[in-house]
């Protein structure tokens, strides 16, 4: 026997945490705004802004970086990791 759900009585749809904020900041490419043509792997302070606490590279859909610069960013972070300028994980 199959049960049907009613959206009004289902607790999943009545959760107040699903309400979205009224104002959402528009994402923009930081490299385009600053006029950066090439991302340098030696600029560790810039690269750290695009790495999460656990060491993963933050995706472009979250940072708002254009795909052209996201590819350069990935290469620069990998080079900096290889030269031990950046850690691979948070445990180093």
TrEMBL record:
<dbReference type="Pfam" id="PF01084">
    <property type="entry name" value="Ribosomal_S18"/>
</dbReference>
<keyword id="KW-0699">rRNA-binding</keyword>
<dbReference type="GO" id="GO:0022627">
    <property type="term" value="C:cytosolic small ribosomal subunit"/>
</dbReference>
<dbReference type="GO" id="GO:0006412">
    <property type="term" value="P:translation"/>
</dbReference>
<comment type="subunit">
    <text>Part of the 30S ribosomal subunit. Forms a tight heterodimer with protein bS6.</text>
</comment>
<keyword id="KW-0694">RNA-binding</keyword>
<comment type="function">
    <text>Binds as a heterodimer with protein bS6 to the central domain of the 16S rRNA, where it helps stabilize the platform of the 30S subunit.</text>
</comment>
<dbReference type="InterPro" id="IPR036870">
    <property type="entry name" value="Ribosomal_bS18_sf"/>
</dbReference>
<comment type="similarity">
    <text>Belongs to the bacterial ribosomal protein bS18 family.</text>
</comment>
<dbReference type="GO" id="GO:0003735">
    <property type="term" value="F:structural constituent of ribosome"/>
</dbReference>
<keyword id="KW-0687">Ribonucleoprotein</keyword>
<dbReference type="InterPro" id="IPR001648">
    <property type="entry name" value="Ribosomal_bS18"/>
</dbReference>
<keyword id="KW-0689">Ribosomal protein</keyword>
<dbReference type="GO" id="GO:0070181">
    <property type="term" value="F:small ribosomal subunit rRNA binding"/>
</dbReference>
<protein>
    <recommendedName>
        <fullName>Small ribosomal subunit protein bS18</fullName>
    </recommendedName>
</protein>
């Amino acid at each position: 026997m199959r049960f049907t759900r009613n959206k009004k009585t289902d607790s999943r749809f009545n959760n107040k945490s699903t309400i979205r904020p009224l104002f959402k900041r528009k994402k923009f490419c930081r490299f385009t705004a600053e006029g950066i043509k090439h991302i340098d792997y030696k600029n560790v302070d810039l690269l750290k802004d695009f790495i999460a606490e656990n060491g993963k590279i933050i995706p472009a859909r979250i940072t708002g970086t254009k795909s052209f610069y996201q590819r350069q960013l990935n290469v620069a972070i990998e080079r900096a990791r290889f030269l031990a300028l950046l850690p691979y994980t948070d445990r180093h």
